[in-house]
Write a structure and sequence with these properties.
Length: 272
């Protein structure tokens, strides 16, 4: 049972972080060299894992990923660079890596938003793993080559005032902007083998935090106008939000009914 639990932990860490499984195996090998009394209960292996995973995430992985053609996005907003991860988990799990060409696109968008609406912080969600084209970033169907990036919507309080750095759900996903009765609803028929989860039970748990339409519309309008200069290839967004925000462009696409819903975030993709 212990071996099975260990192998399961390696698998889960690999799926979630790409490198965590390898670090856990290394920590186990190093722990085996310790005296039996020192590794009783697995605490020594856990400590070794935490230390080595932290060291790998902060020191080792970034330069190696750069050699492989990917760079990390900033985890926190800085003066002159109002970009941040929507949750610390995206950096902790090494899901904040992109093709270097994505960085100027995101920085330019964030700068434009802050200039038009001072104090605006542009938040990103899942990006890509640091290595290996073709390894999926579960639960996404794509995000496997450095060219994809999810952005959070901008939100307001119940009075309509913008809330900097805020999300509706803890990780930015699965808090859907529901279509109205007259809005396009393209995926009403039941389907098997689909990632289009409605998460109905979760919707009532999120705070009453409406979409801030001015900033969300401005960000999309900027991306549609300026994004192609940076190689922007497409944006995935649900049809009812495209209609609500009053936008139209060949860059705006519907992802289909077997992929995840895109009325809780924006999906950006640059050309190969």
């Amino acid at each position: 049972m212990r071996r099975l639990a260990f192998l399961l932990a390696v698998l889960v860490l690999t799926i979630l972080t790409q490198v965590g499984g390898a670090v856990l195996i290394l920590a186990w090998l190093l722990g085996r060299a310790l005296p039996l009394t020192a590794r009783r209960g697995g605490l020594a292996i856990l400590a070794l894992f935490v230390v080595r995973y932290s060291a790998a995430t902060l020191v080792i992985i970034p330069p190696l990923a750069a050699l492989a053609g990917r760079v990390p996005l900033p985890c926190r907003a800085e003066p002159g660079r109002p970009v941040a991860a929507g949750s610390p988990l995206y950096c902790l799990l090494n899901r904040n890596y992109v093709d270097p060409r994505v960085v100027p696109l995101l920085d330019a968008l964030a700068a434009a938003m802050d200039q038009a609406h001072p104090g605006t912080v542009t938040l990103y969600l899942d990006a890509n793993f640091p290595f290996l084209d073709g390894m999926p970033l579960v639960p996404h169907l794509s995000h496997d080559d450095g060219r994809k990036l999810d952005l959070a919507f901008f939100y307001a309080d119940t009075g309509g005032a913008y809330r900097p750095g805020s999300l509706r759900s803890p990780i930015g996903y699965w808090a859907f902007e529901q279509p109205g009765p007259d809005d396009p609803q393209p995926c009403t028929e039941p389907r098997w083998l689909t990632l289009r989860w409605n998460m109905t039970l979760l919707q009532g748990l999120y705070p009453d935090r409406p979409l801030e339409p001015e900033r969300t519309r401005a960000a999309l309008a900027w991306l549609l106008a300026e994004g192609p200069r940076f190689g922007l290839e497409k944006i995935l967004l649900e049809p009812h939000l495209v209609r609500r925000l009053g936008l139209s462009s060949p860059l705006l696409r519907f992802q289909g009914c077997r992929a995840a819903r895109h009325d809780d975030h924006l999906h950006l993709q640059i050309a190969p």
